[in-house]
Amino acid sequence: MPFIFIVIYLVLVLVRPQEYPQWAQAGIPFLPIALITALVAWLPSRHKRFDEPQYLLLALFLLVTSLSVAFNGWSGGGLEQFNVFAPTLVAFVLLANSALTRKRVVFVIGVFTACAVLLAIHGIKQSATGLGWTGMPLIDDGRIQYLGIFSDPNDLGMLFVICMPMALYLGSRGGLLGLRRLVWLAGAGLLLYGIFLTNSRGSLLALVVMSGAYLWQRRGPVSALVLAAVCLALLKLVPSRLDQLDVQERSATGRVEAWYEGMQMFIAHPVWGVGTDRFTEFNELTAHNSLILVLAENGFIGFFLWFSFLGYCFWMMARILRHAPELSDDEDVIEWRRDRAIAMTLLVSLVGYAATAFFLSRSYVMLPYLLSAVVVAHFTAVRERFPDVVPFNLGQDLLRWLVLACVAVVGFYGLLKVLLAMT
Length: 423
Fold this sequence. Notes:
Structural class: mainly alpha
Shape: globular
Radius of gyration: 21 Å
């Protein structure tokens, strides 16, 4: 029962019918109702799982995002931030706890993809007529948009990018005399066209990075780099904003300057940062980078938690892909191949999020945490089926993540110095 309600919540988050003009006027809080209903249905469950480190890391990150505001002189703002981000933690826990079978993981992947395809169809209609069925027009430069958290074309492109590997995975499964394959591959084509209509440079680059990541896993780094170079050359020929991608271009220069200001905020407030959602109080532009946004607003403590949370998601899927279990019969071989295929899909989707988030301030939005919940659910389910898959232990990995977080900060600072020298 909790699974049904959390899936309804997922659909409401992605499709957002409660924000359509005919529903918005009703004033009914559909999202809170759906989430609270799912929580109430889950609480009596005897199968609660908190094995994976992400549960603790996200709870601590919620606390730090609130304390970063309170410690910067606004205690009431800390409570307000807690109330804003707490639904993300609840949704993560419920989805990760509810999708603990392969069938449910695949179903959630299908829901993600179907919702994204629906938004792509909305964008195609919007592009053709100038107005979508939601009442949302094209933005001034002709790019498509949607409602709520997807009202920015870049956010919409991020959703399409994340769901592209999912659509291709679903299209590889066959069934129903090939009709299922045809439907999902057509969906992948619609998502690709939707990315083109968003004209988001970050999303186009993410396609290249995802293709390289997939080929790296299958064929090695040389093939991945060759493919990335070819894809970049081809994308340069496509009419898009990608041909304007240059460090000295005005938009790119503004982003680099925002990154620099964010690093200065971190240097001035290294422990707790300047406070969640306060970046634009210190700089006219937002950070345009999820990493630097967390670093500036939540300091090293918040960054360490956020970085470790996402890092574990990548590590989990990589562990499944690299694991060689002892398989007793042909059925186990088939089961393992299915689990690996899902792990590869989710890993590439994570790469897509990371690539787009590098150019966007999307550290706190719901989408990556819902994706992470599916990752955690899949890893937990795989460990149930194949107990020899080694679990993770935050206590044992703590020093590793501290070192990697420091390396990430230093590496970003070095990249920033190079980019500033080029502007």
